[in-house]
Prior knowledge:
Number of helices: 17
Domain Rho-GAP: 201-393
Shape: elongated
Pfam families: DEP, RhoGAP
Mean pLDDT: 80
Radius of gyration: 34 Å
Number of strands: 7
Distance between the termini: 85 Å
Protein name: DEP domain-containing protein 1B
Order of helices and strands: HEEHHEEEHEHHHHHHHHHHEHHH
Strand order of the largest sheet: 1-2-4-3
GO biological process, one term: intracellular signal transduction
Strand content: 5-15%
Keywords: GTPase activation
Structural class: alpha+beta
Amino acid sequence: MEPRLVGPGPYRATRLWNEIIELFRAGMPLRKHRCRFKSYERCFKASEAVDCLHELLGSNQNFGPEVTRDQTVKLLKKFLKNHVIEDIKGRWGKEDFEEDGRLYRFPPSSPLKSYPKKPSCGKEVIKFPDWNEPKAGRSQEHIPVKSVAMNSEMWYKRHSIAIGEVPGCKLVFRRELTQTNIEEIWKSMTLSRLQKVLGLDSLDEVLDTKLVNSKHIVQNVYNVNKQGIVTLEDKSKELPHWILSAMKCLANWPSCSDLKQPTYSGFERDVFKTIVDYFGQMKEPLLTFHFFDIFVSVLGLLQKPSKAVEALQISCLLLPPENRKRLQLLVRMMARISLNQDLPPLSESVRTRTLMVQAFSRCILCSKDEIDLDELLAAKLVSFLMDNYQEILSVPSALKSSIEDHVVHLQRVQIKYAGADSDAPLPPPSFCHQISTSDFEYQRATGSQESLAALLEEIVMNKEISVKDKKKKLKQVNKNFSTVSNFNSKRFIKS
């Protein structure tokens, strides 16, 4: 059985769990073993299971080579607890699996999980400001609208090239956008972009949009310092000064401006343990329980790094500002520590980068209800965050510009023509294609001639203009556009 990439979408953790079980059952060699003078068919040693599953996870693109043996043993403990495997006497249900010579086997029944039935969140339709709806206590006819009446003289002065008759129109003055309106627009367009990047028909199964706070998005975009770190309005939610000092100490080792470093051996390990203990006691991970499924879905895009980065950029905008700030500071510290060659090893047995992932994965991402692949999924996400934190934890400029342009469009006074919808959304970006020189010259000539012909026709047929004024205007046209309209204007003058 070949491993397959499990992409974004609902129940991704469950789909991954079933995928790994199927691969493990298909790939684990089963042999005859002896234990206490008795032979057992189709079983395997615990150490053999660790070897097989560790290799399987490392070569699987859903997890990757950074999966450790310790994580593999923990997953096998969960396999034993969930009756994916059992010992040779048929016992299971406890997480007492160890990497030793004990014998295990697969049970005859299918251990795959069924997909949970989540209660429907319902689609939250963001109501945009209705510009045609009058304010309370005010009738529609009193909305300020300035009609524009154009006679032929005004029309000619305003248009050097006319394209047909100008239809009746009026200026539409928009009602002022409130802060709530703007926040709703930010929420709607942000979620719409996230859905598109993930390639999903709907976000309903991976995100309860009612739990997305529009104020958080706007604050995360605009309340930032020069380094792009969120600034909090409520200072009581800031990290304690002593934790910030500890994080700066390790991130900037050996240069530390605001902390006098003791000289005793192992000081840096004590500082690291202090940071780990602080983040480990949080009741909820930084990415929050509510957004677990959306971040797990993003992991399905890691084979397309640019898409994954954009999806994480947008997803991190949904976080409460205090969570986003802590995530920015923590991941930045983790990345700097991992690359700091001057910092003494923080563990005797584990590489510094692996230690960062193991120490902080659970405080960054985990599920409220225990999910058996929590640790592996969190490790995968945190590794990617460390490698791309500067881009992921910055404000996505393209999204910001798009929403700001849309807000400006909604606030602008607009000309509304009869039968047209002035509230139509902005058209998507258009792209041009190259044409030949001959096609360009033809289009330029024919386009100009058609427009000028329409202008000349308008002058001649206008009954409000005297013959003398008509000749004067036609001569003016002939003078200004002699290369194109000489023949046409002469013909009209004669007529």
